[in-house]
Each structure stands twice: as structure tokens, then as C-alpha cells.
Write a structure and sequence with these properties.
- Catalyzes the transfer of endogenously produced octanoic acid from octanoyl-acyl-carrier-protein onto the lipoyl domain of GcvH, an intermediate carrier during protein lipoylation.
- GO terms for molecular function: ligase activity.
- Pathway: Protein modification; protein lipoylation via endogenous pathway; protein N(6)-(lipoyl)lysine from octanoyl-[acyl-carrier-protein].
- Monomer.
- By secondary structure, the chain is α/β, with parallel strands linked by helices.
- The protein has a single domain, classed as Bira Bifunctional Protein, Domain 2 (BirA Bifunctional Protein, domain 2, 2-Layer Sandwich), CATH 3.30.930.
- It is built from ten helices and twelve strands.
- Strands 10-11-6-2-1-12 form a six-stranded mixed beta sheet, sandwiched between helices. Strands 4-3-5 form a three-stranded mixed beta sheet, with helices on one face. Strands 7-8-9 form a three-stranded antiparallel beta sheet.
- Helix 1 packs across helix 9 and helix 4 crosses helix 8.
- The N and C termini lie far apart (about 45 Å).
- The relative contact order is 0.20.
């Protein structure tokens, strides 16, 4: 069975989290490490925005500050995500890996098999979101909201039609990075505070509609699933879904230094985060 690496990097700052995902891509491209599954969290809780988002137009930074949130721009696309009570995962693997289809959507499907198996291990009746009508496909191209969990995309995970995990993918110099959020519990007021709206009535309408579009994991179960339980289930899920064996990856002092350098030179800068 093929050996992939597994890294649980714990709670880290926003710039560190994005820098480590990028460095894992670099090291895998340079054949220094095998494909990697990484789990992580955020300290402080953080708003991340997609690479192409216009933050001046879409984000209320006074609310970000009021709630004591970190802020970072991801190297992946997609919309704004509030990383708070959640498990974040990333998968780093070469585009030409035998398991990886050429198209982005099909690669989503293959990687997300790990998530699907993890949720099923916990007893959740999860399934893939597959937009079927032309209207649904068109809506994915032109999202109405800056909020990531407002609607599921191709092959994201849903329970009874409501999104339970949001993911984004980028491909850089032959390497795929897919990372995403598994929301355990959510403060909807905080989430909707940090985005801008044409008026209060629009915000209220969107927030009411949100309940039918997305759901945190612990709203689906009678017991409280912990982050550690979720990590264990997702580790089993990725091994089963991707048919691999996961072995621990321990970063060297030199690798940690590389992450710190990239964090300082890129993901901690206003030039990157605000596209100045």
C-alpha cells in the first residue's frame, strides 16, 4: 500500500497556516516528501478570503477587529471562511499522481472520498453535492454571497442537502493543494457580521436562508463530537478513501525556518493580504 505522510500541526496563526501549506507543496514538488494529509486549527480564530476576492468591497474590517479575528488571503480561490470551531485539512499531491484525474472537479471528487469516508465513520449520512441543473451550475459560477458556506460546490459534502465541509483547490507548478473546513460549531451572527451587505434587510434575508444551506457537524448529532474524534475519523477516512497508509511527518528545524521566512515575507504582508 502506498505511503503518504500525515501532519497534525495543531493551532497556528493564519500566516503560518498558509505558509506551511505552500511549503509542503514546494517540498513535495522537490521530491523531499511524499504526498501529505495535514490537519490544523487557527489561533486566533481567523477570516480567510479567496485569492481573487475584493476585500475592500466585501469585508467589514471593523467587525473583524471587534471580534478579535485574524485575517489572511488564501492561495486558493473560493469565498470567505470564518475559521473558528473547526477542523481544517489540506491535501498536497502531484497532479500526475496515478490517483489524480486531470480535471479540477474530478480531483475534488477523488480527494473528497477521504472526507466522505470520515463522515460515514462517524455515522453521518453524508453524500457528494452534484449540481444537476444548468441553473445550479450557473449559480456556482456567479455566487451571490461572499460567504463560503452559503452554497455547496461540485463534490463538496452535504447532509440532507446542507453543506458540512467547504473546500478550495489550487494547482501550482504541477502540485495540487486542496484545503478545506469542517465546521464543528458555528456562531452565525459573528460569521455574518464580518461581511458587507447592500443593507440590513439583505443581511437578514441571507442569514435566515443560511440555515437551509449549511450546517455544523454538532447540529447533526445528539452527542458532541470533539475535534480529536473528528481528526481520528478523518485520518481513517483518508486512508480508506484514497487507499493509502498514513505515516507521521515531523518537520525539521530547517523546514520550520523556511515556513517562518515565507510567513514573514508573504502571508504576513499587507501587499499579499490586501492586494495593495
Amino acid at each position: 500500500m502506498e505511503i503518504w505522510y500525515f501532519l497534525d500541526s495543531g493551532l497556528k496563526g493564519p500566516a503560518y497556516n498558509m505558509a506551511l501549506d505552500e511549503k509542503l507543496m514546494d517540498w513535495h514538488r522537490e521530491k523531499k516528501i511524499n504526498p501529505v494529509i495535514r490537519f490544523y486549527g487557527w489561533n486566533p480564530p481567523t477570516l480567510s478570503v479567496g485569492y481573487f476576492q475584493n476585500v475592500e468591497k466585501e469585508i467589514d474590517f471593523s467587525a473583524v477587529e471587534k471580534h478579535g479575528l485574524g485575517f489572511v488571503r488564501r492561495p486558493t480561490g473560493g469565498r470567505g471562511v470564518l475559521h473558528d470551531d473547526e477542523l481544517t485539512y489540506s491535501v498536497i499531491v502531484n497532479e500526475d499522481h496515478p490517483k489524480m484525474p486531470a480535471t479540477v472537479t474530478e480531483a475534488y471528487r477523488v480527494i473528497s472520498e477521504g472526507l466522505l469516508e470520515g463522515f460515514r465513520y462517524l455515522g453521518l449520512e453524508a453524500e457528494f453535492s452534484i449540481p444537476r441543473t444548468e441553473e445550479e451550475k450557473d449559480r456556482l459560477k456567479r455566487p451571490r454571497s461572499a460567504v463560503c458556506f452559503d452554497a455547496p460546490s461540485w463534490y463538496e459534502l452535504v447532509v440532507e442537502g446542507r453543506k458540512i465541509a467547504g473546500s478550495a483547490q489550487t494547482r501550482q507548478k504541477g502540485v495540487i493543494l486542496q484545503h478545506g473546513s469542517i465546521i464543528m460549531n458555528i456562531d452565525e451572527d459573528k460569521l455574518f457580521d464580518i461581511f458587507k451587505y447592500p443593507n440590513q434587510r439583505v443581511r437578514e434575508r441571507m442569514q435566515r436562508a443560511f440555515k437551509s444551506k449549511a450546517v455544523p457537524i454538532n447540529a447533526l448529532t445528539e452527542r458532541n463530537i470533539t475535534i480529536e474524534e473528528m481528526k481520528g475519523a478523518m485520518k481513517v477516512g483518508f486512508e480508506k478513501g484514497l487507499d493509502v497508509k498514513l505515516e507521521p511527518l515531523v518537520l525539521t528545524a530547517e523546514q520550520e525556518e523556511e515556513v517562518q521566512e515565507l510567513m514573514t515575507s508573504k502571508y504576513d504582508t499587507e501587499k499579499w493580504n490586501y492586494k495593495l
